[in-house]
């Protein structure tokens, strides 16, 4: 199922007409409650967090456009009001495909600067170049380092994870509820990590993102991965250990002068492969081998275009 969902995500980026032929009508939305005011929706695409309460409903990611009515019904079934705020953890279509629908329904969309840039321009991805997103699908409030929300009796830290899965990843931390949403900086039990090098991603940033959350989490924390079941701090620590081991093996071999093919032949990630996973060992090794340290750019939109005009500049929402 995961492989099919990711394949569908490449279709939504490269060929929306092809996605329309995929049968999402049979997808069922499963809801799991993690705290009195936070739930997770599992469907086809990235895991969705729902924060609801007296201040309104916050949705984190929104899967594919055809699923919007089902997601709205799942939100209503929680006793929550219609979505007031929507946060994208990154720009990929299996996490932002419903933006236009929710934007037209009145939700304020928030995301990292680079998410708006990539959606507005139509960026590159495994499936090809995405079409530029319509205005209603674009984040209207963007930030660079992060933003803090005070909603529904909780303090929500939205933190940028630089150059990780992409160059625009956000990690959310509900401090009172002790819940994290890591987006695709964390794939749990479903595949080896996917690093979108073309979108400025780097495996070193994924490792740093795991460290960021591990420094804040405790044994009672609930961690929502981008894909896969809910996780604990111990689960994330095991993921981090896997990353460090495979990265270390690839880096050592590369420093010794081995070619990519020679490193792949060593099979340093083979024991961590997940049957049916979207990313298998060789692909993960290649992503590590080609990852840059520091600030990889990947394919970047033309910043001369006016894609930043709707940014908020108040309250620290946009800081460089």
UniProtKB/TrEMBL annotation:
Residues 292-320 are annotated as: Disordered. This is beta-lactamase. Belongs to the metallo-beta-lactamase superfamily. Class-B beta-lactamase family. Pfam families: Lactamase_B. Residues 45-227 form the Metallo-beta-lactamase domain. It is found in: Periplasm. Its EC number is 3.5.2.6. Monomer. It is an enzyme of class 3 (hydrolase). Residues 1-20 form the signal peptide. Its cofactor is Zn(2+). Residues 292-308 have a biased composition (Basic and acidic residues). It comes from Sphingopyxis jiangsuensis. Keywords: Antibiotic resistance, Hydrolase, Metal-binding, Periplasm, Signal, Zinc. It catalyses: a beta-lactam + H2O = a substituted beta-amino acid. CDD domains: metallo-hydrolase-like_MBL-fold.
């Amino acid at each position: 199922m995961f492989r099919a969902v990711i394949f569908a995500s490449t279709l939504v980026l490269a060929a929306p007409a092809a996605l329309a032929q995929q049968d999402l009508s049979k997808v069922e939305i499963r809801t799991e409650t993690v705290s009195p005011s936070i739930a997770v929706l599992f469907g086809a695409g990235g895991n969705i967090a729902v924060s609801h309460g007296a201040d309104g409903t916050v949705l984190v990611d929104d899967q594919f456009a055809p699923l919007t009515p089902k997601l709205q019904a799942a939100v209503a079934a929680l006793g929550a009001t219609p979505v007031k705020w929507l946060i994208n953890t990154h720009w990929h279509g299996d996490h932002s495909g419903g933006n236009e629908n929710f934007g037209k329904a009145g939700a304020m969309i928030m995301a990292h600067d680079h998410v708006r840039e990539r959606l507005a321009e139509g960026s590159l991805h495994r499936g090809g170049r995405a079409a530029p997103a319509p205005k209603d699908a674009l984040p209207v409030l963007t930030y660079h380092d992060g933003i803090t929300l005070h909603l529904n009796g909780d303090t929500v830290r939205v933190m940028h994870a630089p150059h990780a899965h992409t160059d625009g990843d956000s990690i959310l931390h509900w401090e009172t509820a002790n819940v994290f949403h890591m987006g695709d900086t964390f794939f749990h039990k479903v595949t080896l990590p996917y690093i979108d090098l073309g979108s400025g991603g780097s495996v070193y940033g994924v490792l740093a993102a795991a460290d960021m959350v591990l420094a804040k989490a405790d044994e009672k924390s609930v961690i929502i991965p981008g894909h896969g079941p809910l996780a604990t701090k111990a689960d994330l620590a095991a993921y981090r250990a896997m990353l460090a081991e495979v990265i270390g093996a690839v880096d050592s071999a590369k420093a010794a002068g081995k070619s990519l093919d020679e490193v792949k032949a060593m099979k340093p990630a083979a024991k961590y492969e997940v049957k049916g996973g979207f990313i298998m060992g060789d692909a993960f090794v290649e992503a590590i081998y080609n990852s840059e340290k520091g600030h990889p750019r990947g394919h970047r939109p033309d910043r001369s275009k006016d894609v930043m005009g709707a940014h908020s500049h108040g309250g620290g929402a946009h800081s460089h």
